[in-house]
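Researcher: Sequence recovery benchmark, item below. Answer with residues only.
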């Protein structure tokens, strides 16, 4: 079983913001594979299904970004889920918009959701897909930037970004994550 976690903030006010691209990617993957992400448990909304013969659980923490680790820890403890089967999807300012970057470890890089995950999981070693949102222009506060909505041009490119993310997830369900990294990092 693989568990795929998209980071974001709950509520309509945050729906189309840069910080919620992890939620958007989970929603796109869920739609592609007809998985209903509607079960409220473990401080999150979950959906279970099968993709390519592999059981998957899709998770959207409802704790707000900065406390995302609480939901993961609750899920992990209850189901005895292995961190080796985890893939986290989240926004990354150090990756240009439209690109994705796969990693199997790393620092939070100033991302409070990732800080919470690392704190609650007790390790920075877990699979992740960073979805690029680029950096704000100089002088634009980072907190405000990640909570702004995508531009029209960015929304126009969003289907391609989300589809490549879903393609990477599908590949990772059938192959070692390192092989998926080599394939999708080269194509971004």
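Model:
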């Amino acid at each position: 079983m693989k568990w795929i976690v998209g980071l974001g903030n709950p509520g309509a006010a945050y729906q189309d913001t840069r910080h919620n691209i992890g939620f958007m990617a989970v929603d796109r993957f869920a739609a592609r594979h007809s998985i209903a992400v509607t079960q409220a448990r473990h401080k999150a909304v979950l959906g279970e299904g099968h993709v390519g013969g592999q059981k998957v659980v899709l998770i959207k923490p409802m704790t707000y970004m900065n406390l995302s680790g609480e939901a993961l820890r609750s899920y992990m403890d209850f189901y005895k889920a292995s961190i080796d089967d985890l893939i986290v999807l989240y926004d990354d300012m150090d990756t240009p918009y439209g690109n994705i970057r796969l990693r199997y470890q790393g620092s939070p890089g100033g991302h409070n959701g990732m800080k919470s995950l690392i704190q609650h999981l007790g390790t920075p070693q877990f699979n992740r897909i960073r979805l690029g949102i680029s950096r704000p222009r100089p002088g634009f506060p980072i907190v405000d930037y990640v909570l702004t909505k995508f531009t029209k041009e960015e929304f126009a490119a969003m289907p391609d970004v989300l589809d490549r993310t879903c393609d990477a997830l599908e590949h990772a369900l059938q192959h070692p994550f390192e092989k998926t990294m080599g394939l999708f990092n080269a194509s971004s």
